[in-house]
From TrEMBL:
GO terms for cellular component: mitochondrial membrane; proton-transporting ATP synthase complex. This is ATP synthase complex subunit 8. It comes from Tipula cockerelliana. GO terms for biological process: proton motive force-driven ATP synthesis. Its main location: mitochondrion.
Amino acid sequence: MPQMAPINWLLLFIIFSITLIIFNTLNYFSFLPSNPQKSQTEKKNNSPLNWKW
């Protein structure tokens, strides 16, 4: 059974690493979160907090 040269293992590792990085970035950026609507942000209570120390 023939053995692979070390440069081939390095090239194989680099190719698999690049494909893993590309695959992960495509999966990360393929999901676009929906922007919250303005009605939800207006409903937030902006009253000051009363701290009783």
